[in-house]
From TrEMBL, chain A:
UniProt cross-references to SUPFAM superfamilies, sorted A to Z: Thiolase-like
Protein name: Acetyl-CoA C-acetyltransferase
Location of the Thiolase N-terminal domain: 6-222
Source organism (scientific name): Halorubrum xinjiangense
UniProt-listed InterPro entries: Thiolase, Thiolase-like, Thiolase_C_2, Thiolase_N
Gene Ontology molecular function: acyltransferase activity, transferring groups other than amino-acyl groups
Automatic annotation (TrEMBL), chain B:
Protein name per Swiss-Prot or TrEMBL: ChsH2 C-terminal OB-fold domain-containing protein
Phylogenetic classification of the source organism: Archaea, Methanobacteriati, Methanobacteriota, Stenosarchaea group, Halobacteria
Species of origin: Halorubrum xinjiangense
Domain called ChsH2 C-terminal OB-fold: residue spans: 61-125
PANTHER family per UniProt: BLR3430 PROTEIN
TM segment ranges: none
InterPro entries assigned: ChsH2_C (IPR002878), NA-bd_OB-fold (IPR012340), Thioester_dehydratase-like (IPR052513)
Listed Pfam families: OB_ChsH2_C
């Protein structure tokens, strides 16, 4: 196995850019990644690109060659689709390709364009990540599915809307200094509690926004980094993926996400770490309850104990285990097919020390990224470490 | 129905045939799950059990009533449910399998969002979406049907 280094990361500002094409968004992220990496784009051997609903949003299928053009690379290019984990699986395959010695340089990331659609069409588009026959036709929306999980969680373990409001408030506070975040404003627990309902018990501030954006990573082998004298101190040391039954109702437990637990087990084993070694995490908080489920599946909290982590200050920026220092999907934004790549980009910046929130975790050495698709029928976990 | 010149095959073969047949059975009070020899239940179409891969699947009736395991009152719908919101979606245990559907109170329309709770006993039926008349799985408080 070859050492896999993050040579460079690039993001567009996340937000509402209805006038910008997908190719322009990904082109910008890739340009920033190459500038950050100081790697010759002619050395790129593969492009792994994540995108979920481009056929709906832009009437554009077959996006990978288009994005290779946008990035200025000529190499095998493939689009990966795994709902909200699309970029996560794209990055994972890039990591495996480099680790296996099949390539020295891979460009990975993703893009999603969403705000050019009316909100009801986005709702319909996101719903296709669920089982069309037995969930969507039965009225399940994307927020509705997580609302079903939230009520199941409250029933099984306790917890309240106020606990979830603390998750929202924490992540909004983290986003304030982040120049890439969509909502750089604080939201109080009271404001979150008073917001209108989307799918009860989830209200407006329990949900991530609708976002346009792109992410790109230049991943290289340790050997390539050394040969080219690259400044690439962060390594991807572990990768794992899990799959569960598609429909929530077919899961063994309605308030647990074992696909993420499987992904975490595999990633930790790959990296040779345990959950206790993790210093910070970027988790898939498409809804506040999703952060709670993620923390428990990652083994960072026992089942039933993740719900109070934000309220008790354990996962806040000054807590023992800061979670979503980027602002998370909740406040930084969730351009679906780009999110898995942006989590790795943010963790890399946090660990390198050049993120606006790096000073909250000055001694952090091990970070974990958790990216989920649908109601976690798909999950990808990566471990990033500061290399010696 | 086809006097506008539509292809008669549209009537003969419904889209998503296995799902349509399953809904027909549900509407007739003959709702079923496909169950393997290990007792794993699933919904059609299936060639094998999604849990264990067993190919010997038999049709087993759903329990007469089911128990609500979780629910949500949805206020922001997709376009297909625009006129149905707010509505209560629930996941209900019916013996060999769980079903997902909308809870309705008796025969009242979409403005009737019942006070559903986890643990409630409900019966399953087939109803229509207020928005466009499409069929969907409906739960009603047990004893009302």
């Amino acid at each position: 196995m070859t050492d896999v280094r993050v040579a460079g990361v690039g993001l567009t500002p996340f937000g509402s850019h209805p006038e910008r094409t997908g190719r322009d968004l990904f082109g910008e992220a890739a340009l920033r990644a190459f500038e950050d990496a100081d790697v010759d784009r002619a050395d790129v051997e593969e492009l792994n690109y994540g995108n979920f609903m481009g056929a709906l949003a832009e009437h554009q299928g077959h996006q990978a060659p288009l994005m290779a053009e946008a990035a200025g690379v000529r190499c095998p290019a493939t689009r990966y689709e795994s709902a909200c984990a699309s970029a996560g699986v794209a990055v994972r395959e890039a990591v495996r390709t480099v680790a296996a010695g099949d390539a020295d340089v891979v460009l990975a990331g993703g893009m999603e364009r969403m705000t050019n659609l009316p909100t009801d069409e986005v709702t319909e588009g996101l719903a296709i990540a669920a089982d069309d026959l037995f969930e969507v036709r039965a009225g399940v929306t994307f927020p509705g599915a997580y609302a079903l999980m939230a009520n199941a969680y409250f029933d099984a373990y306790g917890g309240s809307r106020e606990d979830l409001a603390h998750v929202a408030s924490k992540n909004h506070e983290n986003a304030v200094p982040n120049e890439y975040a969509q909502y750089r404003k604080e939201v109080s627990v009271a404001e979150a509690m008073d917001a209108p309902p989307v799918a009860e018990p989830l209200h407006l501030y329990d949900a991530c926004p609708i976002t346009d954006g792109a992410s790109a990573l230049v991943l290289v082998s340790g050997e390539y980094a050394e040969r080219h004298d690259l400044d690439a101190p962060v390594a991807v040391t572990g990768t794992g993926q899990g799959t569960d039954r598609m429909a929530l109702g077919d899961r063994e437990h309605l308030a647990r996400t074992p696909a993420a637990a499987d992904a975490a087990d595999a990633a930790y084993a790959d990296a040779g770490i345990e959950a206790a070694d993790v210093d910070l995490a970027e988790v898939h908080d498409c809804f506040t309850i999703a952060e709670v489920l993620a923390l428990e599946s990652l083994g960072l909290f026992e089942h039933g104990e993740g719900i109070t982590a934000a309220r008790e200050g354990v996962t806040t920026a000054d807590g023992d285990l800061p979670v979503n220092l980027s602002g998370g999907l909740k406040a930084k934004g969730h351009p679906v097919g780009a999110t898995g790549g942006s989590q790795i980009a943010e963790l890399t910046r946090l660990l390198r020390g050049d993120h606006p929130n790096s000073d909250r975790v000055p001694d952090a050495a091990v970070g974990v990224a958790h990216n989920a698709g649908g109601t976690v029928a798909s999950a990808v976990v990566h471990v990033l470490e500061v290399a010696e | 129905m086809s006097d506008d010149g539509a292809d008669p095959a549209d009537d003969a073969v419904p889209a998503d045939r296995d799902y349509a047949d399953w809904l027909d059975a549900l509407a007739d009070g003959d709702g079923f799950a496909l169950v393997c020899s290990d007792g794993h239940g699933s919904l059609p179409p299936r060639r094998v059990c999604p849990e264990c891969g067993a190919a010997d699947l038999s049709r087993e009736p759903l329990d007469e009533t089911g128990t609500v395991e979780t629910y949500s009152v949805v206020h922001v719908p997709s376009p297909r449910f625009a006129d149905d919101a707010p509505y209560a979606t629930a996941v209900v245990e019916f013996g060999p399998t769980r079903l997902t559907g909308i809870v309705r109170d008796g025969d009242r329309g979409s403005d009737a969002t019942p006070d559903v709770e986890i643990g409630d006993s409900v019966a399953v039926d087939v109803g229509e979406r207020a928005t466009d008349g499409e069929r969907l799985v409906v739960f009603r408080p047990a004893g009302e049907s």
